[in-house]
Amino acid sequence: MKAARRDTLRMAAAFLGLGACSLLPQAQAQDGALRRPWPARTPTPPVSLPGFEGPGFELAQARGKVVLLNFWASWCEPCRSEMPSLELLAQKYEARGLQVLAVNHRETDAALRRFVQQMPVDLPILRDADGAVARAYGVRIFPTSVLIARDGRAAFSVIGELDWTGPQARQWIEPLLG
């Protein structure tokens, strides 16, 4: 199963133009998720999204915090599988300034309500109703998470499902938390 997931991510990386040389061992988690550095001199797109049954979010107001934007959809099984570990990550690092946000991609209120009834989520859910924020961040595969440093600059993205409680995630996040 893990080999199949890794092969799928490699094909996706090829589709995105990352090429095989971008799949360096230190950039790939054991479960197959890919870490891709944010391109140098590429500005971090602004984020201003309404919340689903909660407050909205403005990236500009989060300066000083490390922000993890997790782009997901309820129909995406790897997204659903990853959600509990994202919640644990948020709880573990909240006191150190990590803010984890679940950015839902183009789903209706009804679909989100069904999802939350089936799988209660404590993370703030943001609505990317038209997919504009996902496009601005180059998201083409779900789940994709983008980590933004305290200075407001995107540091890297993680493409594919990751155990956010595991050692690889810790190794990637700790330097941002300082």
From TrEMBL:
<dbReference type="GO" id="GO:0015036">
    <property type="term" value="F:disulfide oxidoreductase activity"/>
</dbReference>
<dbReference type="InterPro" id="IPR050553">
    <property type="entry name" value="Thioredoxin_ResA/DsbE_sf"/>
</dbReference>
<dbReference type="InterPro" id="IPR013766">
    <property type="entry name" value="Thioredoxin_domain"/>
</dbReference>
<keyword id="KW-0413">Isomerase</keyword>
<keyword id="KW-0732">Signal</keyword>
<dbReference type="GO" id="GO:0016209">
    <property type="term" value="F:antioxidant activity"/>
</dbReference>
<dbReference type="Pfam" id="PF00578">
    <property type="entry name" value="AhpC-TSA"/>
</dbReference>
<feature type="domain" description="Thioredoxin">
    <location>
        <begin position="38"/>
        <end position="178"/>
    </location>
</feature>
<dbReference type="InterPro" id="IPR036249">
    <property type="entry name" value="Thioredoxin-like_sf"/>
</dbReference>
<protein>
    <submittedName>
        <fullName>Thiol-disulfide isomerase/thioredoxin</fullName>
    </submittedName>
</protein>
<dbReference type="InterPro" id="IPR000866">
    <property type="entry name" value="AhpC/TSA"/>
</dbReference>
<dbReference type="InterPro" id="IPR017937">
    <property type="entry name" value="Thioredoxin_CS"/>
</dbReference>
<dbReference type="GO" id="GO:0016853">
    <property type="term" value="F:isomerase activity"/>
</dbReference>
<dbReference type="InterPro" id="IPR006311">
    <property type="entry name" value="TAT_signal"/>
</dbReference>
<keyword id="KW-0676">Redox-active center</keyword>
<feature type="signal peptide">
    <location>
        <begin position="1"/>
        <end position="29"/>
    </location>
</feature>
